[in-house]
Amino acid sequence: MARRILHLDLDAFFCSVEEQRDPALRGLPFAVGGSPEGRGVVASCSYAARKMGVRSAMPMKLAIRLCPNLKIVSSGYHLYSQASKQVMDIMHSKAPHMEQISIDEAFLDISDLPETSEDFARQLQSEIRDGLGLPCSIGVATNKLVAKIATDYGKSQARGDKPPNAITIVPFGSEAAFLDPLPVVALWGVGPKTAEKLSQLGIQTIGDIARYPAAEMTNHFGKHGLDLSIRSRGIDDHPLVGFHEPKSISQERTFPRDIQDHTQLVSTIIKLAERVSKQAKKAGKRGVTVKIKLRWPDFTTLTRQTTLTEPTDQVESISSTALDLFEAEWKPGQAVRLIGVGISGFDKTSSQLGLWDHSYSQKESTKPLDETIENLRQRFGENVLIKGSQLVHEPPVKKTPG
Q: Active-site residues: which are they?
């Protein structure tokens, strides 16, 4: 029996949540994101704004030029997270096999349910829309690949300044016919560069890929070409994955303006390390590798990392190691556009202290302090307490010969 895989995508999710918080936003051109005065980008935008050419990931400065009356709303990520959980809880209650792929997208295996695909999709859409006030679009097909493309297709056909609320069903056996007229960029694995190369071969649609000899696709694109040839026929046997094991935990900060001040850069690194530590503890992860990311004003980006003697989730270890990496690369007066801090190389099991491990008193004794500070910050704000290490971190004095 063919599988029935449902893909759900919340329509303009951040904007929908913001409209619940402030109903006066409904029907207005507005965007969720950063300030146009700095380097803010559009995280999400209303459909009224989209009619004016505004798009996600667009610099907010450009969005304002396209839509001078655009209203900008600051992101409320805690509200988005809560709303996302409510949606995912509803989906998970409907069928046992679900895969969440982002804050506003998920797959659901409805193969064993008695309802038709269309009836189930309409019931689910109504429950989320009427119960939570969140519009969504749905695609159903025999696999994840075609279900996702079906959702995207349905959304692309919507007109006007309201959420699409689209439902697109691709019956068993019609996968290749559904994909045939769609542009190559609709297929997973086809980005701008691949699309340009395909165009040079006279390939414009997914059907063109399917009709192109698989051996020739492999000659031009290697294994990726063979994968594209298979996908273009609507073939995909990937199972739903209920949980994605994170390979790293990281936090970044892009400054509104390039920063040269050493104290501010150091303070930013420590704050990012605190967020990484908090996220790692919540996930029960400890990493053996600490890394930093630096981006200069000319967009040159570098990453540096080092391996510790044992895994950690402690802010002191993460921040001190990140600062050492930073000091090794940064020169006094050098402007910085972006800073990132992260950990990876998670341990599979809890580490056991050795008999001669004198680091215990230094590392374990900071846990109560870290927890107390975190509790105080949650109650009274981020700046209620700061550690002395956050006040200043002087750059190392470089000795000169003689």
A: 105
